[in-house]
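# nightly structure sweep
# worker-07 picked up a monomer target from the shared queue
# config: single-sequence mode, recycle default, output format = structure tokens
# input follows
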Amino acid sequence: MNRTSRRFLPLLALPLVVAAAACGGGDDDDAAPTTTVAAAQTTPPKPTVPPATTPVSEAPTTTVAAQPMGIHSYDSVQPAVVQIVARGTFRDPEIGFADGSGLGSGFVISPDGLAVTNNHVVAGAATLEVYVGGELDDSYNATILGVSECNDLALIDINGPDDMPYLEWFDGDIRAGLDVYAAGYPLGDPEFTLTRGIVAKAEAAGDITGTSSIDHTVEHDAAIQPGNSGGPLVDAAGKVVAVNYAGGAQATTTAQFWAIASDLAQPVVERLRTGDFESLGINGWAVYDEAAGISGIWVAGVAPGSPASDVGLVPGDIVTSMNGLPMGMDGTFKDYCDVIRTSGEGAPIAVEVLRYDTSEVLKGEINGDEPLALAFSFAEEVGDEVGDDDDDAEAISYDYESVVDDTGSIQVSVPTAWTARDTAPLNAEDGTVQPYIAASTDLDGFINGYTAPGLVFAKLPATADLDAALAQYGFPGACTDGGITDYADPVFTGKYQVWQDCGGTTNDVVTLVAVPADASYLAVIQAQIATDADLAALQQAFNTFNAVS
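# output follows
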């Protein structure tokens, strides 16, 4: 290319590999993702109910309301098991925003209406509506007393009667072969469901899913499905052995499921009586996309007033690092929770965030004084070196629109005032075509001179020599070399160069070359800057340039 240039930032390919997902969804429309994680970030088939798992007859529908009562048999737990309807606006990487996020399960632990469920069922919800014991005619609102992301537990207070039937915790030794029963409301069905199984492993791995990180889990084969999350796994006496929260892969012919053991859940639930614990206010899960080189914690919802909300996190963000440590590289919550636990309650945590919709890279400090802001700003990096210092230039501002090239491969936001466009691909000598976009107020003045503002970017063949690539787009003799600087974000690594006072003007040119994590192509963008508004346009381009195929 002559004076043209190329660079782009690919849109995260959808769907992201959801490295782990919980079972707490809802109906078919509003259920949370049900993909699960196996070794090495693969996505196994969704759990199915195996032939060996047999439904258990429903408990009698009559309830005992004369006095507060504990439950003493697995077949009478229904009056203490609740269905939770969590309403709000949540963000799923596959379906986008969902209003009315879905349904989960829970269980009452005291006659005054305290109930346990999963964090991922309730965190970030605007309202909670609770149906007790399968009674469809009456529902109650509930208040969230405390949540714990790292333990995927929540304690809620049901605004109902003070004599509610309740379940007690199992206090014996959990062992392989123990008969257990999963109670709840799967798939958003309001009819109470009870399934039978046995404990397969008393202390399975604690980082099974991407929604928590605990010391160990209870692995069992009492079938659960989306909507069972937060419901109890009880023994024959109706004691809560564990809290169900995840479905998993096939083990031979039997699907396995996981629950949070009672010995781990009890102290956390007690702690939640006084507020959140090991939590930042995020409803999310680990995501991993090897092809795009992206991993982190997907933010599905944010609790108002939480540290996550205060720093500026929004649904659809991906937390890519905390205190400099990359997140989700193994498809789990482990690193995320290790940082929270190491930092301590209320301690500042530096975060780096990929804002999915705009491909912006943001940095900030949770529990600190630094709200999220652009992590890399060309305006800050080169603002003293480029642009017009004329005070009148400050008054110029642009509106923007997205432009897609003719091959449908790349896109970028450019000023609507830059109406001169070229979106035809470049024809290489080997016969291949290279996606290309140019935009300016005057393409000829931009391409062949130094007067008109504008930018171009293209997706070019891969190269391992970024210095050589950058040298192809230099202007020695016509401009003053302002130096080369390294560039990096969660998707790209590369270098950019500033050329100053080009062609006897005070205008400047900025060129960047970069490659994605797999180095499969070279992205190049080049912009000519005449005013501060043009510098803002360059920043907008770097925030929005994408590969769409």
